[in-house]
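User: Show me a protein chain along with its predicted structure.
Assistant: Here is one chain, sequence first, then structure tokens.
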Amino acid sequence: MPGSMKRRFPEVLRGFVEAYQRGLAGMGAHSPAWEAGVFDDRLREQLEARCDLIQLLRVRSFLDYRRKGLVAARKDDLDSSRREFRRAEESLQSLRESEARLLCESLYCAALAYLHYRCEQPERSRELVHRALAIDSELEIGLGAGALYGHRFQLVQNLVHVEARYGDPESATRIGLAMLDQLEGKPNAAPTPHPWSPSDPDQVPVELRRALANQIVFELAAIHLRSHARGAETRRYAEHIATCRARDEVLAVESHDWLRFASAVETADLADAVDLANGYLQRGPGDSPALWYCVVLQCAERLPEHDSEAARSAASAIQCDRATWLHAPSILRGPAR
């Protein structure tokens, strides 16, 4: 290690540890900028507004079975999940042909795709996600882009998960960045082979679009943490930043800052990498604690490069803290599922 780096490292390490500890201390005051359930609530409102009393009861029965199927799948109770989804399908079949039934079918395909994801059946999971996206594209004609944009975003997010776990991480990164392009209203940005318009995101409030941008970039960050091809990924990040327009910069401040950090840290020496992380962490978790934690982990994984007790102790403390991190997605606190 060069002498200048040896002299700098203790100072930048202290700054990093202090910024990390301050961020943890302030994490309790954080409140999420959005909750994923907001999209389900909006779709439920759309559904109920299009039903008479009998249809409404059937729709609510369908939604309840679907919810139970998802809960069981998340708990790895796959037999119970299959049983609830069979009941959900029976309720779906009882609905008469209508926009409400099509919307329920989209919700059903999306949820069933998750069960197949947990059952390690990626091809079937992909098929169901694409079926749901096709239905949403059809429904947009009557319901408008604003009503369905959040659901389409979640479906693309599901595709990223499938590719990251079972397919090609490079494909997952490509889809995720294409979704970010779409959120920013870039011409011809299409994360999937379905109709997407640059004007679609304008139907969603700016603060929600910003939260979605942070969420999709977190998916990229989670892939990056586990990747063995970071050079290719960071080139894609740099290309995205280079083609980003000024107004998009305002929309996606935190997500773009992470893309810049990830691009710079890959080629930086250890002291510079820790200094870059320190600069990111100094501002606190903001609206995206998940990205803040990703920066912590990216830095911590490199600390053992410095043969010192202080570096080893800081890296060990971070690993010990992970299980208790507030507002951290489970994938950052333990094995990915």
